[in-house]
Amino acid sequence: MNERRAVVLLSGGLDSTTVLAIAKSQGFVCNALSFRYGQRHKVELDRAREVAERMGVARHVIVDFDLRQFGGSALTSDIEVPKERSAADMSHGIPITYVPARNTIFLSFGLAWAETLGSSDIFIGVNALDYSGYPDCRPEYIEAYERMANLATKAGVEGTQKLKIHSPLVHMTKAQIVQKGRELGVDYSITSSCYDPAPDGAPCGKCDSCVLRAKGFAEAGVADPLLVKFGSA
To answer: From the centroid of its chain, how far is CA 87?
Structure first.
């Protein structure tokens, strides 16, 4: 009866896997939520399944919907994923890999599931430091969504739920995220961050996400076990 349940948005990437480990370390019984939304890098769902199994979540749900019907992103349309962009290029503007309203949609599913679970806690791996300029990764966005969410549910209106959206990585660098995950025993070899991976899951090493991941491991002073796994390190 005193079980602390949480919904953790799990993409199978470095950030969301670290967030799952953090939620577990805080004593939450974790329910993982992933999405098949028409993304080109579907290998992430294989990674999410493995992460969920290995880390012992209570339940793992994959929700299906198709954002390819709207397009507007290199991840959901026939638009080339940018490669080999410089740090200066990544430091301004919103890149074409941004998926319109994605985190708002994801959090809405998380909110619905949390209410049915009797949970007041949702974890999401957004990051506002080493990130690619996505507007729905900023702390002010998370704060605004949390306020809205507490007005939007039966449980919130009746006072049986005070929803908290946890974003423990939001002010951390990629290096700090890697260090935190290593402290918690995260196996990063089973994660995937690449926007344009090979069919076997090998990262391209050149997209923004690969570059930011490499920067994080380099600054943390450790080898990326995913690259070791694919013989790229």
So the answer is: 22
